[in-house]
Write a structure and sequence with these properties.
Helix content: 40-55%
Strand content: 15-25%
Largest sheet: 4 strands, antiparallel
Mean pLDDT: 78
Order of helices and strands: EEEHEEEEEEEEHEEHHHHEHHEEH
Protein backbone atom coordinates (compact mmCIF):
# COMPACT_ATOMS: atom_id res chain seq x y z
CA UNK A 1 0.00 0.00 0.00
CA UNK A 2 1.09 3.58 -0.56
CA UNK A 3 1.02 6.51 1.87
CA UNK A 4 2.11 10.12 1.64
CA UNK A 5 4.42 11.70 4.15
CA UNK A 6 4.62 15.32 5.13
CA UNK A 7 7.04 16.14 2.34
CA UNK A 8 4.52 15.02 -0.39
CA UNK A 9 6.59 11.98 -1.30
CA UNK A 10 4.80 8.76 -2.18
CA UNK A 11 5.92 5.98 0.12
CA UNK A 12 5.43 2.30 -0.71
CA UNK A 13 4.83 0.16 2.41
CA UNK A 14 4.40 -3.61 2.37
CA UNK A 15 1.78 -5.59 4.29
CA UNK A 16 3.99 -5.78 7.40
CA UNK A 17 4.36 -2.00 7.47
CA UNK A 18 7.92 -1.98 6.25
CA UNK A 19 8.84 0.95 4.01
CA UNK A 20 10.08 -0.34 0.65
CA UNK A 21 10.69 2.75 -1.34
CA UNK A 22 9.39 6.17 -1.97
CA UNK A 23 8.62 8.10 -5.10
CA UNK A 24 8.50 11.76 -5.52
CA UNK A 25 5.38 13.38 -6.86
CA UNK A 26 6.81 14.00 -10.34
CA UNK A 27 7.74 10.36 -10.97
CA UNK A 28 4.30 9.21 -9.85
CA UNK A 29 2.63 11.60 -12.27
CA UNK A 30 4.72 10.32 -15.17
CA UNK A 31 3.70 6.75 -14.43
CA UNK A 32 0.03 7.69 -14.35
CA UNK A 33 0.35 9.56 -17.65
CA UNK A 34 2.04 6.55 -19.24
CA UNK A 35 -0.74 4.23 -18.05
CA UNK A 36 -3.42 6.56 -19.39
CA UNK A 37 -1.55 6.86 -22.71
CA UNK A 38 -1.41 3.09 -23.08
CA UNK A 39 -5.12 2.82 -22.35
CA UNK A 40 -5.91 5.56 -24.87
CA UNK A 41 -3.67 3.89 -27.48
CA UNK A 42 -5.41 0.54 -27.14
CA UNK A 43 -8.79 2.24 -27.13
CA UNK A 44 -8.04 4.11 -30.34
CA UNK A 45 -6.38 1.08 -31.94
CA UNK A 46 -9.39 -1.10 -31.05
CA UNK A 47 -11.96 1.35 -32.37
CA UNK A 48 -11.44 0.52 -36.08
CA UNK A 49 -10.74 -2.54 -38.19
CA UNK A 50 -10.18 -3.36 -41.86
CA UNK A 51 -11.85 -6.15 -43.84
CA UNK A 52 -10.22 -7.29 -47.09
CA UNK A 53 -12.02 -8.52 -50.20
CA UNK A 54 -11.72 -12.21 -49.30
CA UNK A 55 -13.28 -11.80 -45.85
CA UNK A 56 -16.48 -10.92 -44.02
CA UNK A 57 -16.49 -9.51 -40.50
CA UNK A 58 -19.11 -10.38 -37.87
CA UNK A 59 -19.51 -7.72 -35.15
CA UNK A 60 -20.95 -8.79 -31.77
CA UNK A 61 -21.81 -6.84 -28.62
CA UNK A 62 -22.60 -8.57 -25.34
CA UNK A 63 -22.81 -11.92 -27.17
CA UNK A 64 -25.30 -10.77 -29.83
CA UNK A 65 -24.57 -10.21 -33.50
CA UNK A 66 -24.76 -6.52 -34.39
CA UNK A 67 -23.89 -6.59 -38.09
CA UNK A 68 -21.88 -8.29 -40.82
CA UNK A 69 -19.35 -6.21 -42.78
CA UNK A 70 -17.82 -6.82 -46.17
CA UNK A 71 -14.58 -5.33 -47.55
CA UNK A 72 -13.69 -1.88 -46.19
CA UNK A 73 -12.63 0.16 -43.11
CA UNK A 74 -15.05 0.18 -40.15
CA UNK A 75 -15.28 1.55 -36.59
CA UNK A 76 -16.50 -0.17 -33.42
CA UNK A 77 -16.89 0.54 -29.75
CA UNK A 78 -13.60 -0.47 -28.15
CA UNK A 79 -13.63 -3.09 -25.35
CA UNK A 80 -17.38 -3.64 -25.90
CA UNK A 81 -17.83 -4.75 -29.48
CA UNK A 82 -15.86 -7.73 -30.83
CA UNK A 83 -15.04 -8.55 -34.45
CA UNK A 84 -14.49 -12.01 -35.92
CA UNK A 85 -13.32 -12.30 -39.51
CA UNK A 86 -14.34 -15.20 -41.76
CA UNK A 87 -12.51 -16.30 -44.89
CA UNK A 88 -15.06 -16.32 -47.76
CA UNK A 89 -12.81 -17.88 -50.42
CA UNK A 90 -13.24 -21.39 -51.86
CA UNK A 91 -11.51 -24.21 -50.00
CA UNK A 92 -10.84 -27.81 -51.01
CA UNK A 93 -10.50 -31.07 -49.14
CA UNK A 94 -10.29 -34.75 -49.95
CA UNK A 95 -13.08 -37.19 -49.08
CA UNK A 96 -11.77 -40.73 -48.81
CA UNK A 97 -8.15 -39.60 -48.77
CA UNK A 98 -5.93 -36.96 -47.23
CA UNK A 99 -2.91 -35.04 -48.48
CA UNK A 100 0.43 -35.57 -46.76
CA UNK A 101 3.02 -32.89 -46.19
CA UNK A 102 4.94 -33.90 -49.34
CA UNK A 103 1.82 -33.39 -51.47
CA UNK A 104 1.10 -37.10 -51.94
CA UNK A 105 -2.41 -38.50 -51.48
CA UNK A 106 -2.93 -40.93 -48.61
CA UNK A 107 -5.98 -43.14 -48.95
CA UNK A 108 -8.24 -43.37 -45.92
CA UNK A 109 -9.50 -46.96 -46.06
CA UNK A 110 -12.21 -46.35 -43.49
CA UNK A 111 -13.90 -43.57 -45.46
CA UNK A 112 -13.10 -44.39 -49.10
CA UNK A 113 -14.69 -47.85 -49.33
CA UNK A 114 -18.28 -47.85 -50.62
CA UNK A 115 -20.74 -50.64 -51.45
CA UNK A 116 -22.45 -50.62 -54.85
CA UNK A 117 -25.89 -51.77 -55.94
CA UNK A 118 -24.50 -55.14 -57.09
CA UNK A 119 -22.96 -55.67 -53.61
CA UNK A 120 -19.35 -55.02 -54.62
CA UNK A 121 -16.85 -53.00 -52.60
CA UNK A 122 -15.31 -49.97 -54.29
CA UNK A 123 -12.59 -47.63 -53.05
CA UNK A 124 -13.66 -44.24 -54.43
CA UNK A 125 -12.11 -40.84 -53.63
CA UNK A 126 -13.70 -37.40 -54.06
CA UNK A 127 -12.33 -33.87 -54.04
CA UNK A 128 -14.73 -31.42 -52.37
CA UNK A 129 -14.71 -27.66 -53.02
CA UNK A 130 -16.71 -25.52 -50.59
CA UNK A 131 -16.95 -22.03 -49.13
CA UNK A 132 -18.73 -20.07 -46.39
CA UNK A 133 -22.19 -18.93 -47.46
CA UNK A 134 -23.37 -17.47 -44.12
CA UNK A 135 -20.58 -16.24 -41.80
CA UNK A 136 -22.90 -15.89 -38.79
CA UNK A 137 -24.16 -19.49 -39.09
CA UNK A 138 -20.61 -20.67 -39.75
CA UNK A 139 -19.34 -19.10 -36.51
CA UNK A 140 -22.19 -19.78 -34.08
CA UNK A 141 -24.44 -22.62 -35.33
CA UNK A 142 -21.90 -25.41 -34.83
CA UNK A 143 -18.59 -26.08 -33.13
CA UNK A 144 -16.84 -27.64 -36.16
CA UNK A 145 -18.69 -26.95 -39.43
CA UNK A 146 -15.92 -28.46 -41.61
CA UNK A 147 -16.19 -31.79 -39.81
CA UNK A 148 -19.97 -31.75 -40.19
CA UNK A 149 -19.50 -30.99 -43.89
CA UNK A 150 -17.26 -34.05 -44.30
CA UNK A 151 -19.79 -36.24 -42.51
CA UNK A 152 -22.55 -34.97 -44.81
CA UNK A 153 -20.33 -35.61 -47.83
CA UNK A 154 -19.61 -39.20 -46.79
CA UNK A 155 -23.28 -39.88 -46.08
CA UNK A 156 -24.36 -38.45 -49.44
CA UNK A 157 -21.65 -40.32 -51.33
CA UNK A 158 -22.57 -43.66 -49.75
CA UNK A 159 -26.24 -43.08 -50.48
CA UNK A 160 -25.63 -42.20 -54.15
CA UNK A 161 -22.97 -44.84 -54.92
CA UNK A 162 -25.28 -47.55 -53.59
CA UNK A 163 -27.62 -46.83 -56.53
CA UNK A 164 -24.96 -47.67 -59.16
CA UNK A 165 -23.19 -50.87 -60.12
CA UNK A 166 -19.45 -51.12 -59.57
CA UNK A 167 -18.89 -51.01 -63.32
CA UNK A 168 -20.89 -47.80 -63.68
CA UNK A 169 -19.17 -46.18 -60.69
CA UNK A 170 -15.76 -46.86 -62.24
CA UNK A 171 -16.57 -45.84 -65.83
CA UNK A 172 -19.68 -44.26 -67.35
CA UNK A 173 -21.52 -43.27 -64.17
CA UNK A 174 -18.94 -40.89 -62.66
CA UNK A 175 -20.58 -37.73 -63.99
CA UNK A 176 -24.03 -38.78 -62.79
CA UNK A 177 -22.64 -39.70 -59.37
CA UNK A 178 -20.95 -36.31 -58.98
CA UNK A 179 -24.15 -34.42 -59.84
CA UNK A 180 -26.29 -36.56 -57.54
CA UNK A 181 -23.85 -36.21 -54.61
CA UNK A 182 -23.72 -32.43 -54.99
CA UNK A 183 -27.52 -32.19 -55.07
CA UNK A 184 -27.85 -34.42 -52.02
CA UNK A 185 -25.25 -32.42 -50.08
CA UNK A 186 -26.94 -29.09 -50.84
CA UNK A 187 -30.20 -30.44 -49.42
CA UNK A 188 -28.49 -31.69 -46.26
CA UNK A 189 -26.55 -28.45 -45.76
CA UNK A 190 -29.78 -26.46 -46.06
CA UNK A 191 -31.29 -28.60 -43.29
CA UNK A 192 -28.29 -28.33 -40.97
CA UNK A 193 -27.62 -24.60 -41.59
CA UNK A 194 -23.92 -24.61 -40.74
CA UNK A 195 -23.08 -21.68 -43.04
CA UNK A 196 -21.25 -23.72 -45.69
CA UNK A 197 -22.16 -24.52 -49.30
CA UNK A 198 -20.77 -26.91 -51.91
CA UNK A 199 -19.11 -25.42 -54.99
CA UNK A 200 -18.15 -28.67 -56.69
CA UNK A 201 -17.37 -32.30 -55.97
CA UNK A 202 -15.45 -34.53 -58.37
CA UNK A 203 -14.39 -38.16 -58.44
CA UNK A 204 -10.60 -38.32 -58.12
CA UNK A 205 -10.14 -42.07 -58.39
CA UNK A 206 -12.14 -45.29 -58.14
CA UNK A 207 -10.79 -48.80 -57.94
CA UNK A 208 -11.49 -52.12 -56.19
CA UNK A 209 -10.08 -52.36 -52.65
CA UNK A 210 -7.91 -55.50 -53.17
CA UNK A 211 -5.23 -56.51 -55.65
CA UNK A 212 -7.17 -59.59 -56.82
CA UNK A 213 -10.28 -57.54 -57.51
CA UNK A 214 -8.19 -54.90 -59.29
CA UNK A 215 -6.75 -57.61 -61.56
CA UNK A 216 -10.24 -58.94 -62.24
CA UNK A 217 -11.52 -55.51 -63.16
CA UNK A 218 -8.54 -54.94 -65.44
CA UNK A 219 -9.46 -58.17 -67.20
CA UNK A 220 -13.02 -56.95 -67.54
CA UNK A 221 -11.82 -53.65 -68.98
CA UNK A 222 -9.58 -55.51 -71.43
CA UNK A 223 -12.52 -57.66 -72.48
CA UNK A 224 -14.65 -54.56 -72.97
CA UNK A 225 -11.99 -52.98 -75.11
CA UNK A 226 -11.83 -56.17 -77.15
CA UNK A 227 -15.60 -56.11 -77.50
CA UNK A 228 -15.47 -52.51 -78.66
CA UNK A 229 -12.79 -53.39 -81.19
CA UNK A 230 -14.83 -56.32 -82.49
CA UNK A 231 -17.89 -54.11 -82.71
CA UNK A 232 -15.98 -51.47 -84.66
CA UNK A 233 -14.62 -54.13 -87.02
CA UNK A 234 -18.12 -55.49 -87.50
CA UNK A 235 -19.44 -52.04 -88.28
CA UNK A 236 -16.58 -51.53 -90.75
CA UNK A 237 -17.37 -54.83 -92.44
CA UNK A 238 -21.05 -53.92 -92.51
CA UNK A 239 -20.31 -50.58 -94.14
CA UNK A 240 -18.14 -52.31 -96.72
CA UNK A 241 -20.52 -55.16 -97.53
CA UNK A 242 -23.86 -53.42 -97.26
CA UNK A 243 -23.55 -51.44 -100.53
CA UNK A 244 -22.61 -54.63 -102.42
CA UNK A 245 -25.44 -56.57 -100.83
CA UNK A 246 -27.86 -53.76 -101.64
CA UNK A 247 -26.71 -53.73 -105.29
CA UNK A 248 -27.07 -57.51 -105.55
CA UNK A 249 -30.50 -57.34 -103.97
CA UNK A 250 -31.57 -54.68 -106.47
CA UNK A 251 -30.26 -56.80 -109.34
CA UNK A 252 -32.12 -59.90 -108.12
CA UNK A 253 -35.26 -57.88 -107.60
CA UNK A 254 -35.09 -56.43 -111.10
CA UNK A 255 -34.45 -59.87 -112.63
CA UNK A 256 -37.39 -61.25 -110.69
CA UNK A 257 -39.57 -58.41 -111.87
CA UNK A 258 -38.44 -59.09 -115.48
CA UNK A 259 -39.25 -62.80 -115.16
CA UNK A 260 -42.53 -61.90 -113.59
CA UNK A 261 -43.45 -59.65 -116.51
CA UNK A 262 -42.35 -62.35 -118.98
CA UNK A 263 -44.41 -65.04 -117.27
CA UNK A 264 -47.39 -62.77 -117.12
CA UNK A 265 -47.05 -61.93 -120.81
CA UNK A 266 -46.63 -65.63 -121.65
CA UNK A 267 -49.67 -66.55 -119.59
CA UNK A 268 -51.72 -63.82 -121.18
CA UNK A 269 -50.62 -65.04 -124.64
CA UNK A 270 -51.57 -68.61 -123.82
CA UNK A 271 -54.88 -67.47 -122.46
CA UNK A 272 -55.53 -65.46 -125.65
CA UNK A 273 -54.58 -68.48 -127.79
CA UNK A 274 -56.87 -70.70 -125.75
CA UNK A 275 -59.74 -68.28 -126.24
CA UNK A 276 -59.13 -68.26 -129.98
CA UNK A 277 -59.08 -72.06 -130.09
CA UNK A 278 -62.23 -72.15 -128.01
CA UNK A 279 -63.98 -69.86 -130.47
CA UNK A 280 -63.01 -72.20 -133.30
CA UNK A 281 -64.10 -75.18 -131.25
CA UNK A 282 -67.53 -73.70 -130.74
CA UNK A 283 -67.97 -73.32 -134.50
CA UNK A 284 -66.36 -76.64 -135.60
CA UNK A 285 -66.01 -78.98 -132.60
CA UNK A 286 -65.07 -82.20 -134.41
CA UNK A 287 -62.60 -80.64 -136.79
CA UNK A 288 -61.03 -78.68 -133.97
CA UNK A 289 -60.64 -81.79 -131.81
CA UNK A 290 -58.92 -83.69 -134.60
CA UNK A 291 -56.64 -80.84 -135.42
CA UNK A 292 -55.69 -80.45 -131.78
CA UNK A 293 -55.04 -84.19 -131.54
CA UNK A 294 -52.84 -84.21 -134.61
CA UNK A 295 -50.94 -81.16 -133.41
CA UNK A 296 -50.38 -82.74 -130.04
CA UNK A 297 -49.17 -86.02 -131.49
CA UNK A 298 -46.95 -84.14 -133.90
CA UNK A 299 -45.27 -82.52 -130.90
CA UNK A 300 -45.00 -85.68 -128.82
CA UNK A 301 -44.09 -88.46 -131.27
CA UNK A 302 -40.71 -87.11 -132.47
CA UNK A 303 -39.40 -87.20 -128.94
CA UNK A 304 -40.67 -90.73 -128.25
CA UNK A 305 -39.27 -94.15 -129.17
CA UNK A 306 -42.08 -96.57 -129.98
CA UNK A 307 -41.24 -100.29 -129.95
CA UNK A 308 -43.54 -102.68 -131.88
CA UNK A 309 -43.62 -106.37 -130.84
CA UNK A 310 -46.09 -109.23 -131.11
CA UNK A 311 -45.49 -110.30 -127.52
CA UNK A 312 -43.89 -113.65 -128.38
CA UNK A 313 -40.78 -112.87 -130.28
CA UNK A 314 -37.82 -111.08 -128.83
CA UNK A 315 -37.28 -108.98 -131.92
CA UNK A 316 -38.31 -105.39 -131.38
CA UNK A 317 -38.49 -102.67 -133.98
CA UNK A 318 -38.24 -99.10 -132.78
CA UNK A 319 -40.39 -96.67 -134.62
CA UNK A 320 -37.57 -94.25 -135.40
CA UNK A 321 -35.90 -96.92 -137.57
CA UNK A 322 -39.04 -97.15 -139.63
CA UNK A 323 -39.13 -93.45 -139.91
CA UNK A 324 -35.53 -93.46 -141.14
CA UNK A 325 -36.28 -96.30 -143.61
CA UNK A 326 -39.27 -94.52 -144.95
CA UNK A 327 -37.23 -91.36 -145.23
CA UNK A 328 -34.50 -93.29 -147.10
CA UNK A 329 -36.98 -95.03 -149.38
CA UNK A 330 -38.60 -91.78 -150.21
CA UNK A 331 -35.22 -90.31 -151.06
CA UNK A 332 -34.41 -93.32 -153.28
CA UNK A 333 -37.74 -93.14 -154.98
CA UNK A 334 -37.23 -89.51 -155.61
CA UNK A 335 -33.81 -90.20 -156.96
CA UNK A 336 -35.00 -93.01 -159.29
CA UNK A 337 -37.89 -90.92 -160.42
CA UNK A 338 -35.55 -88.22 -161.46
CA UNK A 339 -33.41 -90.75 -163.24
Amino acid sequence: MAKKNDKDVDVVIDEKGKVLKGLDKKSSLLIKIAIVAVIIFFAINGSYYYVNEQENAVVTMFGKVVRTDTAGLYFKIPFIQKVEKVDMTTHGTGVGYSVAGNGQNITDDNNGIMITSDFNLLNIDFYLEYKVSDPVAYLYNSNDPEEILKDIALSSIRSVVSNYTVDEAMTTGKGLIQSAVKEEMLKELANHDIGLTVINITVQDSEPPTADIIAAFKSVETAKQGADTAKNNALKYQNEQLPNATAKADKIRKEAEGKKEARIAEAEGQASRFEQIYEQYKQYPLITKKRMFYETMEELLPSMKVIITDGDTETMYPLDSFVNINSGSGSSSNGSGED
